[in-house]
């Protein structure tokens, strides 16, 4: 399927590794010109070079989205790389393991800034450029916990719910502009952190073997209601993001697309 992304200009925040890297590579494979963003120049340039080696076109924007000035510097680099932007993928963010006892109010504020205000900075900085094209995309990476929060990481749970909410508000603000705003919310995804979690969980259950061998029993034990009985892969999220970013998804707006194998036990 041709996603009609050839020549579109995309910024993917937090794309120097992991899920963001997979998204950047997928967009580039569809012909988009991709700005790879990260805080580490060498890692971001490494991802950009992989894209170039595969025949794609990529530039790099380096900086921290945690402060207004440094975030604006990232935006300026991204806008300057290809003369503007058509697609903005807000992927950067993170969390620390914790619970209601360990997550202080200060930590709540830090996580909110990291996962919500950072996206606000990028959206505000790129909004006029994307609108000026008469077509565009804002896609925020949410999480299954935005709809089905865990008991743990309550500060992180709340930020993901905020990402879903802000997406809908933005879609209404952009009414009639040709620019859409959507959220893609992954469930558990195979990352180095999840692999370590599964390995530790397996030890507690007395299981041994490769990730592929322990994946189903650990998924059933840790996420018993998940009907797919496995975790997702970064490429599966990247495929969903690429479709939402394409002109084929013009009528999808203000949506929260869960790509979670049925992890969230709800109808919406």
Structure commentary:
The protein has 268 residues and is of the alpha/beta class. The protein has 2 domains: 9-189 and 233-259, NAD(P)-binding Rossmann-like Domain (Rossmann fold, 3-Layer(aba) Sandwich); 190-231, no CATH class. It contains 8 helices and 7 strands; from the N terminus they run βαβαβαβαβαβαααβ. Strands 3-2-1-4-5-6-7 form a 7-stranded parallel sheet, with helices on both faces. α1 crosses α8 (234-245), α3 runs parallel beside α4 and α4 (105-131) packs parallel to α5 (154-173). The mean pLDDT is 95.
Brief account:
This protein is α/β, with parallel strands linked by helices.
Per-chain topology:
Layout: E1 9-12, H1 18-29, E2 33-38, H2 41-53, E3 57-62, H3 68-81, E4 87-90, H4 105-131, E5 136-141, H5 154-173, E6 179-186, H6 192-205, H7 211-222, H8 234-245, E7 256-259
Helix pairs in contact: 1-8, 3-4, 4-5, 6-7
How far is the first residue's CA from the last residue's CA? 28 Å
Our Rg estimate from Cα atoms comes to 18 Å
Under CATH at level 1, the class of the largest domain stands as Alpha Beta
Oligomer: single chain
CATH fold descriptor of the largest domain:
Rossmann fold
How big a fraction of the residues is strand? 5-15%
Number of helices: 8
Q: Into how many domains do the coordinates divide?
A: 2
List the strand order in the largest sheet. 3-2-1-4-5-6-7
Helix content: 40-55%
Quick one: how many beta strands? 7
CATH superfamily of the largest domain: NAD(P)-binding Rossmann-like Domain
- Find the structural class using helix and strand composition: alpha/beta
Shape: globular
The CATH architecture classification of the largest domain is 3-Layer(aba) Sandwich
Mean pLDDT: 95
Order of H and E elements: EHEHEHEHEHEHHHE
Uncertain parts: none
